[in-house]
Design a protein that fits this description.
The chain is built from ten helices and twelve strands. Strands 7-6-5-8-9-11-10 form a seven-stranded mixed sheet, sandwiched between helices. The protein is elongated and about 60 Å long. The relative contact order is 0.14. The protein has two domains: 92 residues, Rossmann fold (3-Layer(aba) Sandwich); 150 residues, 3-Layer(aba) Sandwich (Rossmann fold), CATH 3.40.50.720. Helix 2 packs across helix 3. It has 289 residues and is of the alpha/beta class. The longest helix is centred in the last third of the chain and has 19 residues. The structure holds NADP nicotinamide-adenine-dinucleotide phosphate.
């Protein structure tokens, strides 16, 4: 008989994310061990507790979810956790990173885009591209062969982010763009069929007039659910709404696929003990939901 499904939640925040806990239960975790305020040096004992308690054939019933609001800290926890698994002896458990929803949100946004556009060779713009969601969206678009433009208010910041993004199978990294006014926005949008607006909550990045002047734009996706939304004229609930030749998705419109993807990833972890679910792997799972 299979052991009970234990999900170990590692969270760098002082209080473990309740959102992550609820989704874990809804996805089928039978027992949830939540650890808050986790520091990288504490991860070794936690991972050893996970991998030394059940035999290798039962380790698929133990998994680790790294969440919380601090994406950089979560990435450190993931690196640390992986370094303490012992795969040579089959002593490992599946692990997923989705701090601040960054991986599942980017995966859902790009998955939505693939339903409408063939992204290979297509020019795409990611606004707010230096944030955790934007970086991941740029990575995924690049992995599909898109010609990705990554925008920031600050060119150097965009350049730094682009240097850190290496889409597998792609010849090129994203191209950095500075977008701090309407003229720069129009230049960045020129030739783009897709824009993903991944700016901070409550920040408008595209005004209606610029949108109207972007003749090549076919699909606009906004991930900001806090008014004012990232794209003027878009509604937060938009889910494939068409207006004046552009298809729109708002944050809640993308959110349903994001949530399904999150739960599918947790279920998948309980099928085998050797998964590492980061941006690319989570995107692959988003294609199955
Ligand atoms: N639907 C969901 O379930 C879900 C889940 C996760 C995230 N989200 C949403 O996805 C979006 C991106 O998330 P994130 O965590 O990557 O965002 P973030 O790190 O807070 O911000 C992304 C980028 O926005 C730019 N920005 C920040 N303040 C700005 C301002 N005042 N004016 C113009 N640009 C500004 C910054 O880029 P530069 O400084 O380089 O310009 C920043 O790197 C957010 O709106 C978030 O709420 C949605």
């Amino acid at each position: 008989m299979d052991k009970r499904k234990i999900l170990i939640q590692l969270d760098a925040d002082e209080q473990a994310s309740l959102f992550d806990r609820v989704v874990a239960v809804d996805a089928g975790a039978e027992v949830l061990f939540s650890h808050a305020g986790v520091q990288p040096e504490q991860v070794k004992d936690l991972v050893h507790g996970a991998i030394f308690t059940r035999g290798p054939k039962d380790l698929k019933s133990t998994a680790i979810f790294i969440g919380g609001s601090q994406v950089a800290a979560a990435e450190q926890l993931l690196r640390s956790a992986l370094s303490h698994m012992i795969p040579a002896f089959g002593l490992r458990v599946s692990i997923m990173l989705d701090a601040n929803g960054s991986n599942t949100t980017a995966a859902a946004a790009v998955r939505v885009a693939t339903r409408h556009l063939v992204l290979q060779g297509m020019k795409c713009l990611v606004l707010g591209g230096t944030g955790p969601v934007g970086r991941r969206a740029a990575l995924l678009l690049g992995s599909l062969g898109a010609e990705v433009r990554l925008a920031s208010r600050d060119f150097k910041k965009a350049q730094e982010a682009c240097k850190e993004i290496q889409p597998p199978g792609a010849n090129a990294r994203p191209l950095p763009f500075q977008v701090s006014n309407s003229r720069e926005l129009l230049e960045a949008l020129h030739g783009c069929a897709l824009v993903i607006s991944a700016g901070a909550p409550g920040v408008r990045l595209i005004d209606g007039a610029s949108l109207k002047q972007s003749a090549d734009l076919k699909l606009a996706i906004d991930l900001n659910a806090v008014p004012p939304l990232g794209i003027e004229g878009l509604e937060v609930m938009d889910k494939g709404a068409q207006r004046e030749g552009i298809i729109y998705y708002g944050a809640i419109g993308v959110g349903e696929l994001k949530m399904k993807t999150h739960k599918a990833c947790i279920r998948k972890m309980f099928e085998q003990n050797d998964l590492v679910l980061d941006a690319l792997e989570i995107f692959d799972i988003s294609k199955t939901v």
